[in-house]
Amino acid sequence: MESIIRFDSKPVLRDPILIEALPGIGNVGKIAGDFLADTLKASRFARIYSMNFPAQVIPDEDCVVSMACNELWHAELPDGRDAVFLRGGCQANSPEGQFVIAQDVTDIIMPYGPSLIVTLGGYGTGLMADTPHVYGAVTRKELKPDLEKAGTVFNPGQPQAGIIGAAGLLLGFAQMNGVDGFCLMGETSGYFEDHKSALAVVKVLLSYFSIADADTKGLEEKAKKIDELSKQVKAAGNTDSSRDDLGYIG
Question: pTM for the full model?
Fold first, then answer.
């Protein structure tokens, strides 16, 4: 047995949409997904423990430990459907482990009859972007027009290295199971947690899901700090465009 699933509750979900929000390059997907989950006041209903996660427990401010895991949270979207967020502080630590966890998540969500699977991440370029693009990939081309209206850019054949980790595999499992899916990738240097890129992804999500009352002020303030940090890095001459080690990681 590689994984242990613990349910806090078993909610009734209406036409659910799975949204992956796990750490990756620039933590773009995690920041964006966590923001949306918090905005919608999501509640946790399940935890996934696995031998494929880092072998550690993490103490909190009271020195009470918690085991490395991924979590499933749910919230209602404005159109009445439920969003299910895959959240956590880690991804599996091997390609085999990534496959196992993606399959576990798929096995949990499929009985609910999901209508859409959305994955989020960063598109690492090694360069500082003044206005980060949000790049997309889809399980079928008919999904592209609505995403383009929401601000997504489709760059043929990109990323060349593929979409790896949870962001890629969950999309693959969606396609295998006949469920629509897309990935949103915020353009990022990959040097640090990129709230500016995450904000760009959030704006696409808010538009796509018609969420009108989200308060993005806190995220915008953090994005401004990224601008300041970018200026410092550029001034120090640390943005070497010849770097080739920042491929996309979910």
Answer: 0.92
